[in-house]
Amino acid sequence: MLGDEGLKESQVKEISVENINSWILSIGLKEAFLLYQLHKLIENKGQLIKSEKWVTITYDELHEHLSIWSKSSIKRLVHLLEEKGYIVSANWNESKLDKSRWYTLNYQKLKRLDPYTYRKLMAKSGHTETNSAVDTTQIY
């Protein structure tokens, strides 16, 4: 499991809200904040699956990290960001009965919002240009 190799607290602070101004301007404050929080969770608790770090998390667990919003608001934001292609979800569970979702970010799409912040995210997370685009055709 790669969760133990996540960002250190000092490194997380380097990617602050000030660094993602272009995300805020492009997709909105709530959306940018949720993406940033999900990025931190992926880096701190993510598991490497098919050359990408993924994290499995429930809406209740996301609500613990984003308690300023209701669970229904978080669910709507996640679905919206999935529809727009910023969040990718899949079922990587061994049991077909387990319907919990796994999430990663589409770092290539985030790169188009702000190349400077993208390079910082990639350097800190261990992603590379060759493995940062998720092929969603193989997920479902």
Q: Please state the CA-atom Rg, rounded to the nearest Å.
A: 14 Å
Strand order of the largest sheet: 1-2-4-3
Order of helices and strands: HHHEEHHEEHH
Counting DSSP H or I runs of 4 or more residues, the number of helices is: 7
Strand content: 5-15%
End-to-end distance = 23 Å
| Arithmetic mean pLDDT | 76
Biggest sheet, in brief?
Answer: 4 strands, antiparallel
Q: What is the general shape?
A: globular
Helix content: 40-55%
Helix/strand-derived category reads: alpha+beta
Please report the total strand number as a whole number: 4
| Low-pLDDT ranges | 1-14, 130-140
Topology:
Layout: H1 9-14, H2 21-27, H3 29-45, E1 47-49, E2 52-56, H4 59-65, H5 71-83, E3 87-90, E4 102-105, H6 107-113, H7 115-125
Antiparallel strand pairs: 1-2, 2-4, 3-4
Report on the structure:
- With 140 residues, the protein is an alpha+beta fold.
- The protein has 7 helices and 4 strands.
- The chain has helices at 9-14, 21-27, 29-45, 59-65, 71-83, 107-113, 115-125; strands at residues 47-49, 52-56, 87-90, 102-105.
- The protein has a 4-stranded antiparallel beta sheet.
- Helix 2 packs across helix 3 (29-45), helix 3 crosses helix 5 and helix 6 (107-113) runs antiparallel to helix 7.
- It starts with 8 loop residues before the first helix and ends in a 15-residue tail after the last helix.
- The model is unreliable at 1-14 and 130-140 (pLDDT under 50).
